[in-house]
Amino acid sequence: MSFRPPLLCLCLLLSLSATAGGATGENGRDRLNECAKIDDNAVRLPCYDERSVHTPAGEGTESYLSKMWDLNTELRRDRFALRPHRFNYILPYTFNATPGKEVSEGSGTGRGIQHQEVKFQISFKTKLWQDVLGRDLDLWIAYTQLSFWQFYDFENSAPFRETDYEPELLLNFRTNYNLLGLRGRYINVGFNHQSNGRSEPLSRSWNRAVANFGFERDRVNVILNAWYRIPEDGRDDDNPGIERFLGYGQVNVHYLRDGHLVGFLIRNNLRGRENKGALQLEWSFPLARFLSGYIQYFNGYGESLIDYRASANRIGAGFILKEW
User: Fold this and answer.
1) pTM score, two decimals?
2) What is the DSSP code string of 134-159?
3) Potential cystine with 227: which of 208, 211, 264, 316 (Cβ 3.0-4.6 Å)?
């Protein structure tokens, strides 16, 4: 069985960060008291809206999106503090009814891909530059790693089938506007690179310009992701036609209440012919202070880079780290 020390180090680092993070709750309550002293409704209500957005878990004084992107300027943490970017989870057991065969065929080993495997994701970010040029925007760097581990393939030393690495550089604009009843909290734009770090014929990589929009209303969060693939020379293109399978964006919706999270991700290539897309359903439920149970179902294209042309149909159960 192969040993992957970088993955273990990252897991340990995230665990330590989770125990060290957190917003300043006492300071938040003081800010709310200041709002309560305002007599003018037209002034007092926006004060509460800015400083006392209800948190999904019913704790603290920040909304989910505000915590994730440090949107409340009065409750900010240290500039270089690690915080989650996407979800951090491990699914010790998943079952894929339609496993892709591209790995075994491309390697020439003839080794089959098992239906059951471990899936986990590590994702974090840190702020590099706060209030860029004195404006309501911050510069962030983020990293996400998604791995698929054929742990139950004991005859072949339980190999890692695929690991996708995804660094990003993002400029985040702090916003406050209304759109169709939703409050627009941020817009971030930047550069995204994703690759699996393998050699031909299994190498996969692409570069994208991205734009992301975050909205919230009460306990509902809506995140719109859009991207444009930076063109490559045909000789260097590891993923020909990947836009036909992953499209140009996706929608993420989450409802949070009392420590529970229910959500879905949906994307589509918006083509009348050869229409392809993906749907992910997820549910997390509280177990401990920094840990929740997690169930995930994925159906469609683009779950991993190596199998972007194959449609997966996977369900798994495991654990997810709560946001810190």
Assistant:
1) 0.80
2) GSSEEEEEEEEEEEEE-TT-GGGT--
3) 208
